[in-house]
Amino acid sequence: MPADKKLVTPDKDISIQREIRQTGNKLHIQIDFAQTVTLVSNDDYQGLKNFYTLMANMLNEPITVKLAK
Asked: Does residue 63 carry a pLDDT above 90?
């Protein structure tokens, strides 16, 4: 299973955390997203774009489930 991950911008205005747990034959995925900034200056846009790229990659990470035979 993928490891738990947390991404936070340097100014801590945006964060996302993903936790994956298995309980018996159930898979629990919890994603917490927080954003406190609504306006971004041109100078900060590239950092924001990089953060959202990392976030999209994290959310698109595959989870492989192997069934017992």
From this structure: no
Residue owning tokens 């609504």: 38
Q: Computed over its alpha carbons, how large is the radius of gyration of the chain?
A: 15
Tokens of 34: 């927080």
The contacts of residue 8 (CB under 8 Å, 6+ apart) are 14, 15
Q: Considering the domain boundaries, does residue 66 fall inside one?
A: no
Does 1 or 48 have the greater pLDDT score?
Answer: 48
In terms of Cα–Cα distance, which of 7, 20, 5 is closest to 63?
20
Q: Against a cut of 0.90, is the pTM above it?
A: no
Range of the domain at 20: 5-59
User: Is 53 inside a domain boundary?
Assistant: yes
Give the contacts of 18 (CB within 8 A, at least 6 positions apart).
Answer: 2, 4, 5, 6, 29, 30, 31, 58, 59
